ATP-binding protein
Amino acid sequence: MGDYREGSVPVGLASAADVDAVARSLVRELLALPDVRAVGVALVEGGGRRLRFLPASPAGARADWCHIDAYDDVPLTGVVRSGTAVFGDLDSFAGRYAGLVAAQVDAGTQALAAYPLPGVTTPLGGLLVYYDRRQDFGGEQREVLTTLARQAGDAVRRVRARGVATPVATGRAEVDASVRSASLALESDPRAASAARRFLRATLAGWGVEDDPVDTAELCLSEIVTNAVIHADATSELTISLDDGMLTVSVRDHGGAGSAAEPVEDDDPMRVFGRGLVLVDALADSWGSERDDVGTTSWFVLDLPDGARSAAS
């Protein structure tokens, strides 16, 4: 078993230049562990709506990324939602994951382990290991998996922070075959929320999204931009994306670690900071935030109603 002690980071994870390189390095480390039949690495994507998944096996060709619906009831989605690892012999999972267990029995799997890749506030994704022999999952084995998951999470945050430091052109819009996306650079100024709302409304109108979803998105956006201005005191970047009827809006500030506000629920009428995030929690289908050394990314997701989906298609 490799040396995964504290402070000992595999070279591939330490030197990875992008998320793909992080995932492929982690795959290699996992495949080198004893009794491993196949592995996979997943990263949260689409505002938590899906997992981007990279499967691999020792004898397999170069693997391609695919997607897992975040609402599928499989071990990876479970550990990403809960932040808690699961492991054991395959038959111990039959009561909950009957379909997966049946397929893995046929493939020769006898045990599995799924571990979250820890983020600052919520998991960034997870790793999955299938074994061709029963495992005792002793302390050393669990420590190895926990350490690899943590090191991979650290590497993902590092390369993402490096990427978002690249300046974003004001009003730049990018469109591909599957996802519509537009970004706007925002100043650290009380007028930033107004500029963000105008850009959001104009962008969504151009994509054919109208009426109530736009009003809801404006309310939520105004709150997270205001929080960024108040707590980060730095420039930020607004990104809007539309993918298969799911609207994801994120604001990335450059205020450094610890710049985010937290939701506040109390009866003090004089308290204002953080109260807006309670509104976001009430209006959005999902939302969250994540901090790293560069700053904080706050995001929310709206599932557009059928009428808005049709207009935006």
About this structure: The chain has two domains: 11-164, 173-312.
